[in-house]
Design goal:
Oligomer: heterotrimer
Number of helices of chain B: 15
Number of strands of chain A: 3
Number of helices of chain A: 15
Largest sheet of chain B: 3 strands, antiparallel
Order of helices and strands of chain B: HHEEEHHHHHHHHHHHHEEH
Helix content of chain B: over 70%
Order of helices and strands of chain A: HHEEEHHHHHHHHHHHHH
Shape of chain B: elongated
Structural class of chain A: mainly alpha
Number of strands of chain B: 5
Shape of chain A: elongated
Number of domains of chain A: 1
Largest interface: A-B, 114 and 113 residues
Radius of gyration of chain B: 31 Å
Distance between the termini of chain B: 22 Å
Strand order of the largest sheet of chain A: 1-2-3
Chains: A mainly alpha, B mainly alpha, C alpha/beta
Helix content of chain A: 55-70%
Structural class of chain B: mainly alpha
Strand order of the largest sheet of chain B: 1-2-3
């Protein structure tokens, strides 16, 4: 019985022009998103490599590690960011490394190339979130009310078919056909990635598969929502209208409004305030430092090397004191801001999760490593690198090099050896652990499953009371 | 006759329950977005003011002309309430000093990426996405729906010319859909006024143009719906067709165009350019250093005849030599950046040309241009900041020359005199009240309108073309 | 076979060698000739695809004739469609009208389209009452109307146009017996006012009840045309079946 219904549903769908057209459009878009993502990734890698090479090249010709300035590290492009851009284009990618002090990342892609910010990107997440949810509505809005209008509902229910079986068969038929056809398109897209030279490791594949699973769950929740609304309404035109309004509200309105509301509810001090406080303390410390510097004297000592050594030690201790004070102050401020940000995030996301679109978006960006955590992870990696860099420099120069000091050694006539920039420690950015990512997306995936179930249950209840005349 | 047709069309739209529902949704959405936009703007203004104030405080605390530096902030524009455009994507401030060039850093989204996760909903977004969708939803069955109802035959059993009918259809739908939209728009503008957002006459002029643009854009979609419906016999087909067309035009083509341009005309990363610049700068500096070294050694040999003043004169010379190098570096950087900007401009032109196949892209670009939050936002601000930087540096130089301050600390270690540390002679509070101040020049209305003319023209052209299409295809429509 | 005794003047509706071949090659109408005179009900009887609706569409110039001509009041419907259509009213099968409009609003619109500028609410109400729609439904939206009520509304529109000729496309299909009966009475009263009425139907009983001339159509041709008076006494159904059978035999050979 159930098989008959499913069978009918599949045939009905596959033969409809509606399915033919919309699926063709979606398949093209999916393939396009994979193609664009892959070639975008390639471009980013080329640019990234060029920037890195140029950064090392500009250090060539130096004879002293002391003169190393403007050493930059870059956030490498992530393979999956091409499919789920997340915030990867919004945050700074370039960090100027100094042995001391706070590091900040600059030059987000959108700031550098605002042309891409005008219309944003066409990534797989966008296709799923906007286009496929519309497709779900388009194919589900007349599931019940359409059969009623055609008179087939009465005919079907004139047989000994329990209503729940009818509805279940319908949903399985719809969802099965659509997800299989989408999976075919997605499989071709996935095939494109290694072919276009995107290095996908084992865990990347798992992540991608999970992104697709989340996508299908999201698609399913809109499909069952459509069937639910369809079994609440008598006419197809009104069910479509209701669904469209729901779609606009849940895809476009709720996520944004939640963030804005959270922005109101939790007050996060602005970066400028922090920067100004830090700068003000910094300038106080600097003038103290200056006056303390004048106190340096080693009575009786004439040997320049020993003097230099003594001075370095003196400077070091002064700088350390200054840095410690600065660090303590800055980290207190940063931590406070960070905690508030976390609070704001938690509130915003929990509010936004009323909408399946938000859950989907959060889950996929987490899986692709382009969620908000990307910024923190990059900052931490940069801080780690700073330590390595500082100890490297200390080893090479014998001193803690900070900013602002221009050190000129005069009088050594002998030909000096050039430094080898490639000796510099390399910056490595590691993706988070797969297990951790999966752990982080359980809530959102669970929510998507929940949406599927609740909409299906609601559809069941509504259909049981449906006026099938 | 035409009057009757238009009146009927108007009635058919306004009496339908779906109109009431959508009108309510649209109005609430629009008012909400403007309300949020106003609050967001006010907060941005408050933040901007604090930042400027803090920067002011900072500059007062600086004790030497040598270390004189300023920070300029991009000023929020009231029109970003309606069209946020790139406001949150591009950097907010730049440091101003003699060493580094102007560069806008730290976009709002990079500081608070949480807002980047779901972006903002503004007036332009609602018009672009929601209104166009609804315009199509109300017109996709304009002609074939009547055929299905049987009213088309009934209408044409009367002495009604087809031309009049299709004109009445378009005009009536336009009146029924576009005029009601004006109500929430007017209310939201009123809200801007009531909440005391300061707007100049020129800005109101731009808002008026923005509203006109939005109405034109909605008109285009109304006419498109009628066109699609006069191409097809069944409303279910035209529904599908118009939805597919909508997805392509509004969601896909604008993005696709930009991405295609990115593929065709690739632009290197800024970091690469900066690497080139730094390499060049390093060479110049090392050359400079060598020269200074030689001078120093020569001086060192003749140190017996020198007094303190000579020493300061020497420092002055070094300072000016340093400045020369800086000027050279800057000139090189300007050349590099100009080249980069040219390549970027090529890419942008290509991208925008490709994207403009979609009316949604044309609308968005024109709206951003009118609001001043378009691609020119960044160069415009940077240009103004560059001008300010010149003034500021000149001022500092003059003051420095007047006061004879060079600044900095000089530490010398020699085998004879041991270690000697010199700080600049004077670091009493500096009088900087007469320093230049940074202001962003107001955009002239004409300067805003001119680049938007193309897009206005494109939208008007599209509308006329679609209307002609609807007209022609209806003249041949099978009325049975 | 053609037999028209009651020539009270010029024919109001006239088909002269009217043919229509569709793009797909189907010959829907094959050199059909007939005339409808004032005060006459002309019924086209036939199965689906016989060409009845094609004939009406040709009178309304909704499609172009392949050859021949359809005249309304002597004006060619094809060459001067607007002038011709000013003289004809039309009632279609299962008309939905505008579901969001009330009966009054629907009427108002079509009356104006018909060229009447001054038409008071009272006139509209009177006509609605005449076709059998009680006052309380005049201001209800058509969404809630039954098929019969909508059909009455359609007839009201035709009556209001007050044209000399009326075209009816399957007017009684889907109506209940009471509504069908009412409809026939209405048609008779219109005939008595001197209207020329062309009606397509596959309802033999209604046709016999009201028609002055009955034409049986098959495969785009009129295979029999009789005055009702000559037919009286015979069983029309039998005649119909006879002709159809004979004709089918003919085509089969």
């Amino acid at each position: 019985m159930l098989r008959t219904i499913i069978d009918k549903e599949i045939r009905d769908l596959l033969r409809s022009t509606k399915f033919g057209y919309t699926f063709a459009v979606c398949a093209v878009l999916i393939l396009l998103s994979f193609y664009v993502g892959a070639s975008n990734y390639q471009t980013s890698v080329t640019h990234h490599e060029a920037a890195r090479a140029e950064n090392l090249r500009q250090l060539e010709g130096l004879t002293d590690w002391l003169n190393v300035e403007q050493h930059r590290i870059f956030l490498p492009p992530q393979p999956l960011a091409a499919l789920v851009t997340g915030i990867s284009n919004d945050i700074g990618r370039t960090t100027e490394v100094e042995a001391r002090g706070e590091l900040t990342a600059h030059d987000s892609r959108f700031n550098e190339e605002p042309i891409f910010a005008v219309f944003r990107f066409l990534d797989l997440r966008f296709i799923f979130q906007i286009v496929l949810s519309l497709l779900a509505i388009l194919l589900g809005y007349d599931a019940i009310s359409g059969e009623k209008e055609r008179g087939t509902l009465r005919l079907a229910l004139a047989n000994a078919v329990p209503r729940w079986k009818y509805l279940l068969g319908k949903l399985i038929g719809l969802f099965g056909t659509l997800s299989v056809s989408l999976l075919v398109a997605l499989a071709f897209g996935c095939l494109m990635l290694p072919m276009m030279g995107v290095p996908m490791g084992g865990s990347d594949w798992i992540r991608l598969v999970l992104v697709i699973v989340a996508g299908l769950l999201y698609f399913g929740s809109f499909l069952s929502l459509s069937v639910f609304v369809s079994s609440m309404t008598q006419r197809t035109s009104s069910s479509f209208l209701v669904l469209l309004v729901v779609w606009i509200v849940s895809v476009l309105i709720i996520p944004r409004s939640a963030v804005l509301l959270a922005g109101r509810a939790v007050d996060v001090p602005s970066v400028d305030e922090l920067a100004s406080k830090k700068a003000s303390l910094d300038s106080d410390l600097w003038s103290d430092f200056r006056s303390a510097l004048a106190d340096f004297s080693v009575p009786g000592e004439k040997d320049p090397d020993k003097l230099m050594k003594a001075f370095n030690d003196y400077m070091d201790s002064l700088t350390n004191v200054r840095d410690d004070q600065m660090d303590a102050f800055a980290s207190r401020l940063n931590e406070d801001r960070y905690n508030r940000q976390l609070q704001q995030q938690a509130l915003a996301f929990n509010l936004a999760r009323i909408s399946p679109a938000a859950s989907f978006s959060l889950a996929t960006s987490e899986l692709a490593g382009t969620s908000l955590a990307l910024k923190d992870r990059y900052r931490q990696a940069a801080a780690e690198y700073q330590k390595a860099y500082a100890s490297f420099m200390k080893e090479k120069t014998g001193m803690n090099v900070g900013g602002r000091m221009i050190i000129m050694k005069i009088g050594d006539d002998e030909e000096k050896e050039l430094i080898d920039p490639s000796e510099l420690p390399a910056f490595v950015y590691n993706q988070p652990q797969l297990a951790g990512s999966i752990g982080n997306v359980t809530t959102d995936t669970g929510l998507l499953v929940f949406f599927n179930l609740i909409f299906f249950a609601a559809a069941m209840v509504a259909f049981n009371r449906y006026d099938a005349r | 006759m035409l009057g009757t047709l238009i009146q009927k069309e108007l009635r058919a739209i306004i009496l339908s329950p779906k109109f009431t529902a959508t009108f309510a949704v649209c109005s609430v959405l629009l008012l909400l977005s403007v309300f949020i936009g106003i609050r967001e703007y006010k907060q941005t203004v408050a933040q901007h003011e604090t930042a400027v104030q803090l920067a002011d405080q900072r500059i007062q605390e600086i004790s030497s002309w040598h270390g004189m530096r300023d920070k300029t902030y991009r000023k929020p524009d009231p029109l970003q309430i309606l069209v946020s455009g790139l406001t949150y994507d591009i950097g907010r401030w730049s440091s101003i000093d003699s060493r580094s060039t102007v560069k806008l850093k730290n976009s709002a989204f990079s500081d608070d990426p949480i807002f980047a996760v779901f972006r903002f909903v503004d007036f332009a977004f609602i018009v672009q996405i929601v209104f166009s969708l609804f315009a199509i939803l109300f017109t996709f069955d304009a002609v074939n729906g009547e055929r299905e109802n049987g009213t088309l035959r009934l209408v044409f059993s009367n002495a009604v010319p087809r031309a009049k009918y299709i004109i009445g259809k378009c005009l009536g739908s336009w009146l029924g859909l576009v005029v009601p939209i004006c109500i929430p728009i007017a209310l939201s503008l009123l809200m801007i006024n009531i909440f005391g957002v300061p707007m100049t006459a020129g800005e109101w002029g731009r808002v008026a143009l923005l509203v006109a643009l939005s109405l034109l854009y909605v008109t285009l979609f109304v006419v498109m719906g009628v066109f699609v419906s006069s191409l097809t016999k069944r409303s279910s087909v035209s529904f599908l067709l118009s939805l597919v067309v909508w997805v392509l035009l509004v969601l896909i083509i604008p993005r696709g165009g930009v991405l295609a341009a990115g593929q065709l005309a690739s632009v290197p990363r800024l970091a690469e350019i900066e690497g080139l610049r730094d390499g060049h700068a390093k060479n110049l500096w090392s050359q400079h250093r060598k020269e200074m070294e030689e001078r120093f050694l020569a001086r060192h040999d003749a140190r017996e005849e020198r007094d303190d003043d000579d020493m300061w004169a020497e420092m002055k010379f070094e300072d000016s030599a340093r400045k020369d190098v800086q000027i050279q570096i800057e000139a090189y950087e300007v050349r590099l950046m100009e080249d980069w900007d040219r390549r970027k401009a090529t890419q942008q032109r290509l991208a925008l040309t490709l994207s403009r196949f979609s009316p949604a892209a044309a609308y968005q670009l024109a709206a951003q241009t009118l609001a001043g939050t378009d691609l020119s936002l960044k160069p415009r601000n940077e240009e103004a900041m560059r001008t300010y930087r010149k003034e500021f540096n000149q001022y500092v130089d003059e003051k420095q020359a007047e006061g004879g301050h060079v600044g900095g600390i000089q530490i010398s270690i020699g085998s004879d005199e041991g270690m000697k540390i010199t700080t600049s002679r004077d670091n009493a509070g500096l009088d900087i009240d007469d320093r230049p101040r940074y202001t962003l020049p107001q955009q002239q209305l004409a300067a805003v309108i001119q680049p938007a003319v193309t897009d206005f023209g494109l939208l008007a052209f599209g509308t006329i073309l679609l209307f002609a299409g609807a007209f022609v295809s209806f003249l041949r429509y099978d009325l049975r | 076979m053609i037999n028209t005794e009651s020539n009270n003047g010029q024919p109001r509706l006239q088909a002269v060698d009217l043919s229509k071949r569709y793009e797909d090659g189907v010959l829907a109408l094959d050199s059909v000739n007939f005339s409808v005179y004032p005060g006459q009900v002309f019924a086209m009887l036939g199965g689906n695809g016989a060409g009845k609706t094609t004939a009406i569409n040709l009178f309304l110039n909704l499609i172009e004739p392949t050859s021949g001509e359809a005249f309304i009041q002597g004006i060619s419907a094809h060459r001067e469609p607007l002038k011709a259509k000013a003289n004809v009213a039309f009632v279609s099968e299962n008309v939905m009208l505008y579901p969001n409009f009330t009966a009054m609003q629907n009427l108002e619109f079509f009356v104006r389209l018909g060229g009447k500028t001054e038409c008071g609410t009272d006139d509209l109400r009177a006509v609605l009452r005449r076709v059998g729609l009680p006052d309380e439904v005049h201001h209800k939206r058509l969404k809630g109307y039954s098929k019969g009520m909508r059909q009455k509304c359609g007839i009201a529109i035709a009556i209001l146009k007050d044209a000399p000729a009326i075209l009816l496309d399957e007017p009684t299909s889907g109506l209940d017996p009471k509504a069908g009966f009412d409809f026939i009475r209405l048609l008779e009263s219109l005939r008595d006012e001197g209207k020329a009425i062309l009606m397509s139907t596959h309802d033999i009983f209604r046709a016999r009840e009201v028609a002055d001339v009955v034409a049986i159509m098959n495969n785009g041709r009129i295979i029999m045309q009789e005055n009702a008076s000559t037919l009286s006494g015979k069983d029309l159904e039998q005649v119909y079946m006879q002709y159809m059978a004979g004709h089918n035999l003919e085509t089969a050979v």
